[in-house]
Amino acid sequence: MDQLDLAIHNTAHRTKDHAEYLAKAMGKSYQVFINKCNYNNDTHHLNVAELRAMMVLSNDFQVLDVLEADRPGHETQSASLGDALLHLGVEIGDVYSAISTAKADGKVTERERNTISREIAEVRAALLDVEKLVSAL
C-alpha cells in the first residue's frame, strides 16, 4: 500500500465518527467520501480541492508530510534505524528545549513561535526518516 493512500485513509478515519463528520462538512455522501478515501478502491478518488478541505477540516496534515518525503532531495539522513531513532530523540528534545526557553519569561514571542515551529518541522523530517527505514525492512 502506498504511504499517500494510507495517510488519506488515516486522515479520514481518525476517530469512529470522523469520516461521517468530514463527509457532511464537505457536502458529500458518506459512502462516496469513504470510497474516495479507500486505498482499495480504484474508481473513486479525491480531487485536490477535496483533499485540501479534508485536511483543513480535520486539522490533520499528514498527507503533506508524505508528499514532502517524496520531494527530490529528501533522502534518509540516517544509515540505520537505530541512528534514525536516536536522531528523532534529539529532535524531540530540541522541541522541548525551544518551548521551555520560550516560556521561561512568561510570554512567547513571534520569533520563539517560529523557532518552535521549525523544531517541530525537524521532528517531522526525522520521523519520516524512521518511517522510510522501517518500510525498507
What does this entry look like structurally?
This protein folds into 2 domains: 3-62, no CATH class; 75-135. It is mainly α and 137 residues long. The longest helix has 26 residues, at 110-135. The chain has helices at 3-12, 18-25, 30-36, 48-58, 62-70, 81-103, 110-135.
Structural class: mainly alpha
According to DSSP, the number of beta strands is: 0
Rg calc: 18 Å
Average pLDDT value?
86
- Spell the H/E element sequence: HHHHHHH
Low-confidence stretches: none
Strand content: under 5%
**Count of alpha and pi helical runs:** 7
Large-scale geometry: flat
Number of domains: 2
Percent helix, as a range, is: 55-70%
Question: Distance N terminus to C terminus?
Answer: 15 Å
The largest sheet, given as strand count, sense and whether it forms a barrel, is: none
SSE layout and pairing:
Layout: H1 3-12, H2 18-25, H3 30-36, H4 48-58, H5 62-70, H6 81-103, H7 110-135
Helix pairs in contact: 1-5, 2-3, 6-7
A few lines on this structure:
The chain is an all-alpha fold.
